[in-house]
């Protein structure tokens, strides 16, 4: 008799997480469109857009655009914008706001090499495991022009915390997977893709280990 063991199946885990994300974010799309972005996040966005304007950048890709709140501000600032999100529900709301947005995964961006001058991704990449994060960062670098810049913000923690998180107040669907990395972990991974020109963290509340990690990274130039 041959015995078998139930070995972990990374692909099955990834597909299950993706199904949970779609259920959650499709259900949340309309409410998220009405939820304002906090002032500290909008300040980071305006500073990033000012950098792009100073460098005469024109095309911006957003990874994890949600309902398009940042996208509307990017377009209003005069940039050519493309948004992507895994959730069809989010994309439907973003398109209704007049944005060029399409369903796509951060780990498989449907664009040619060197298509965009800059990229923006907030509160998205912490939903990826380590292998997926590496793939997503490689994809972002691939679709940017040499010397392009990208801004990344994600929720992290003082200690590595991995697993599904249920929302206590609003039940939109299954718990979402979070991979909350430490500051050195995030900084190191981003530094592998270029020069980290800006970096800050912000605790979710005073004395909390849960924090927002934000960076602006410049990819290697044509001679880099």
Automatic annotation (TrEMBL):
SUPFAM superfamilies, per the entry: S-adenosyl-L-methionine-dependent methyltransferases
Name of the protein this chain belongs to: Methyltransferase type 11 domain-containing protein
Domain Methyltransferase type, first and last residues per copy: 61-151
């Amino acid at each position: 008799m041959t015995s078998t063991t139930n070995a972990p199946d990374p692909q099955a885990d990834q597909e299950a997480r993706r199904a949970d994300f779609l259920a959650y974010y499709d259900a949340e799309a309309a409410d998220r469109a009405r939820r304002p972005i906090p002032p500290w996040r909008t300040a980071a966005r305006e500073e990033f857009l000012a950098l792009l304007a100073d460098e005469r950048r024109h095309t911006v890709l957003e990874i994890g655009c949600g309902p398009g709140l940042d996208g509307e501000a990017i377009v209003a600032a005069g940039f050519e914008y493309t948004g992507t999100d895994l959730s069809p529900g989010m994309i439907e709301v973003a398109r209704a706001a007049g944005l060029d947005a399409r369903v796509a995964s951060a780990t498989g961006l449907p664009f040619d090499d060197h298509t965009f001058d800059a990229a923006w991704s907030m509160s998205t990449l912490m939903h990826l495991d380590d292998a997926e994060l590496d793939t997503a960062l490689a994809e972002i670098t691939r679709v940017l022009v040499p010397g392009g810049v990208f801004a990344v913000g994600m929720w992290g923690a003082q200690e590595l915390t991995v697993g599904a998180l249920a929302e206590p107040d609003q039940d939109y669907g299954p718990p979402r997977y979070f991979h909350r990395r430490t500051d050195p972990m995030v900084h190191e991974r981003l530094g592998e893709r270029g020069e980290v020109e800006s970096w800050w963290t912000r605790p979710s509340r005073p004395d909390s280990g849960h924090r927002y990690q934000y960076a602006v990274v410049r990819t290697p130039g044509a001679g880099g």
